[in-house]
Specification:
This protein has a domain of 71 residues. It has 4 helices and no strands. The protein is mainly α. The N and C termini lie far apart (50 Å).
């Protein structure tokens, strides 16, 4: 009787993970498309390649995918848009609650 109770959750689990990965891929694409304008196709290829690796590495690919994509983009040596503009943040521009939360 216990095995009958487990079957629905077992069949739902892969769909839930696949949905999570799908949402994450969309989020990563939007995030990196803003950081690297005009490189959407490269970003799409990197995400697809790293998604495949993530599925090979873990039953929870959505947990490792962001790190894999970030590392791959770092290897490409791409310079994010506006990277030099805000490189150093003046400590007076950061609010106190933000600093307190960081500690």
């Amino acid at each position: 009787m216990k095995t009958e109770m487990l079957l629905p959750s077992i069949t739902v689990f892969p769909r839930v993970v696949a949905l999570a990965v799908g949402h994450l891929k969309e989020h990563l694409l939007n995030k990196y498309a803003r950081a690297y304008p005009g490189l959407d196709e490269i970003i799409r290829l990197v995400i697809a390649e790293e998604e495949s690796r993530a599925w090979d590495l873990s039953a929870f690919p959505h947990l490792v995918l962001p790190d894999l994509v970030e590392a791959h983009l770092a290897q490409l040596g791409l310079e994010p848009a506006g990277a030099n503009a805000g490189r150093f943040v003046d400590s007076t521009t950061v609010s106190e609650p933000f600093l307190a939360a960081a500690c």
